[in-house]
Amino acid sequence: MRRRYITLIEMLISLALLSFLLSSLFFWYHHLTIRHDTLAKKKWPLVEERYCDQRLQKLFSHIKLQSPFFTTRDDLVFIFDNGPHPEPLLSHQVLGRLYYDERNNTLSLGVWPLPKEESVTPSENLVLLDRVTSLSFSFYYPPQPSKKTVETEQVGHPVPDEGWQSIWQQAYTAFPAMLKLTVIREGKKEDERLVFAFELPGEQLISYPKEKKV
């Protein structure tokens, strides 16, 4: 039987087909890589916001409604249970400050031990969200249908108004039932407005009387 040799034309055709196949594979691989990177970039801000929400949910579920609890221009000072921590002085009940870091454009949480006599104490600063341009707070103080005319512990202290308010004074002896954070975050085309709402733990049970039917 006569042996058949591959001609030059057949070899060139084979190389052309192989080149076309490899080019197609590399094209689709490049296309899928770009698409994956694009989706990852779009998804990443949502991941960051979800992380921030989870951290805040955990933070405010362990908040201690006791003095100090107040706001200044763009921060909130409070006491919360930090749980176990490598630094013993930052474990369990600590002083927290949720604030807008204007220098770094971040929503940050500062943690310190409760005020004591020691002049030098450890501290911790956590970044919860970046690209932040402003931060504001809203507090909800519910109606008090069964409150006394004069509360003994509130004599000489201001009383918060019922409903939503943007400032919580340090002189208040009462505490809000809900807290809302409004964060403005820088976007590529326009700024994004994020709202985080939290129910604060409290021992007081609020009941509302039913309206009488006419």
Low-confidence stretches: none
- The SSE string, one letter per element, is HEEEEEEEEEE
Structural class: alpha+beta
Task: Identify the overall geometry.
Answer: elongated
> Rg from C-alpha positions?
30 Å
Number of helices: 1
**Number of β-strand runs:** 10
Alpha-carbon distance between the termini?
111 Å
Mean pLDDT comes to: 82
Topology:
Elements: H1 8-61, E1 63-64, E2 70-71, E3 75-81, E4 93-101, E5 106-113, E6 124-130, E7 132-141, E8 163-165, E9 178-185, E10 192-199
Antiparallel strand pairs: 1-3, 2-3, 3-4, 4-5, 5-6, 7-8, 7-9, 9-10
Describe the fold and architecture.
- It is a single chain.
- By secondary structure, this protein is of the alpha+beta class.
- It has one domain.
- The chain contains 1 helix and 10 strands, in the order H-E-E-E-E-E-E-E-E-E-E.
- It has one helix at residues 8-61; strands at 63-64, 70-71, 75-81, 93-101, 106-113, 124-130, 132-141, 163-165, 178-185, 192-199.
- Strands 1, 2, 3, 4, 5 and 6 form a 6-stranded antiparallel beta sheet that branches. A 4-stranded antiparallel beta sheet has the order 8-7-9-10, with helices on one face.
- The longest helix has 54 residues, at 8-61.
- The protein starts with 7 loop residues before the first helix and ends in a 15-residue tail after the last strand.
